[in-house]
């Protein structure tokens, strides 16, 4: 629904009136045919109709658009009385600022803030009402700290109220302790499962390391055996080398002693035969 035209000061252009409620546009929307409506009015109309209420052209909610800017500006500049005029408010302001004023207007009817009180009071009289409201609350004058309503003054018992409060606190404490206990047990169970899982993983890793160490030890033993064999072969080669050197020295000695060609040939034959036997000997040892 729109704003009551009787609240406005001066002339209101016909184009700023809702085509359905005939009041001044409130939260306006415009159809493709350029007729303007209050949002609530046109949405309610289109629930049961599918055409414009002015010229009967077909329209849909999706075709509705905001009001033209110049029309929106004209609408916002209109002057009107506060809705609390009957209660004594004489404020006149623009339509653009009327909502802000009415939210803060001293003549607005607002509910009492005390629980249980259904009274509606003007904002300017709220403090006076709160001072005498039968539902107002205050702290017990006997020092128990309990908040009481004026209607309950005769029934208030400090000892009983404190006992009730103590029982509530005890129950709340027990509930919190139980919750903390359950939470701790849940955390311990979770940590225990995590530790068991971690222990299993570590055990598997240890077994894998043991297997790797065993393989390494086997490789080391194989290398040591190969090294011993290689050392023996080197010793055998060294022995053969010494024998070969002795044969060469003997050959040189025999060559110096021979003086004739015939004796040189006969003498040279024997050392060369011995040399050939020595050369064959290492081959046999290596094959073995």
Description:
It contains 6 helices and 9 strands, in the order E-E-H-E-H-E-E-H-E-E-H-E-E-H-H. The strands form 4 sheets. The chain has a 3-stranded antiparallel sheet. Strands 4-5 form a two-stranded antiparallel sheet. A two-stranded antiparallel sheet has the order 6-7. A hairpin with a 7-residue loop joins strand 8 and strand 9. Helix 5 runs antiparallel to helix 6. The N and C termini lie far apart (118 Å).
Summary, kept brief:
56% of the residues lie in helices and 9% in strands. With 288 residues, the chain is mainly α.
Radius of gyration: 58 Å
**Helices and strands: which structural class?**
mainly alpha
Spatial ordering of strands, largest sheet: 2-1-3
Order of helices and strands: EEHEHEEHEEHEEHH
Low-confidence stretches: 266-270, 281-288
Q: What proportion of the residues form beta strands (DSSP E)?
A: 5-15%
Mass-distribution shape = elongated
* Helix segment tally: 6
* Biggest β-sheet strands, sense, barrel: 3 strands, antiparallel
């Amino acid at each position: 629904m729109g704003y009551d035209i009787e609240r406005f000061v001066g002339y209101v252009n016909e184009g700023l009136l809702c085509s359905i409620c005939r009041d001044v546009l409130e939260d306006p929307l415009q159809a493709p045919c350029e007729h303007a409506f209050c949002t609530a009015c046109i949405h309610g109309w289109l629930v049961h109709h599918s055409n414009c209420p002015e010229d009967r052209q077909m329209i849909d909610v999706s075709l509705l658009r905001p009001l033209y800017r110049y029309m929106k500006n004209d609408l916002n500049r209109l002057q009107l009385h506060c809705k609390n005029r009957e209660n004594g408010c004489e404020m006149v302001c623009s339509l653009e600022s009327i909502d802000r004023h009415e939210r803060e207007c001293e003549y607005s009817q607002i509910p009492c803030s005390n629980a249980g009180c259904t009274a509606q009071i003007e904002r300017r009289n709220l403090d006076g009402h709160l001072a005498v409201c039968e539902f107002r609350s205050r702290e017990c004058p006997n020092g128990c700290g309990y908040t009481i309503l004026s209607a309950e003054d005769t029934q208030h018992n400090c000892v009983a109220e404190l006992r009730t409060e103590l029982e509530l606190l005890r129950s709340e404490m027990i509930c919190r302790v139980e919750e903390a206990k359950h939470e701790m047990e849940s955390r311990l169970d979770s940590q225990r499962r995590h530790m068991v899982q971690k222990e299993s993983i570590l055990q598997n890793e240890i077994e894998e390391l043991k297997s790797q160490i065993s393989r390494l030890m086997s490789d080391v033993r194989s290398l040591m055996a190969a090294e011993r064999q290689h050392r023996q072969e080197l010793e055998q080669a060294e022995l053969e080398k010494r024998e070969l050197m002795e044969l060469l020295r003997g050959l040189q000695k025999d060559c110096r002693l021979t003086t004739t060609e015939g004796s040189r040939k006969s003498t040279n034959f024997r050392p060369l035969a011995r040399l050939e036997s020595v050369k064959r000997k290492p081959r046999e040892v290596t094959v073995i």
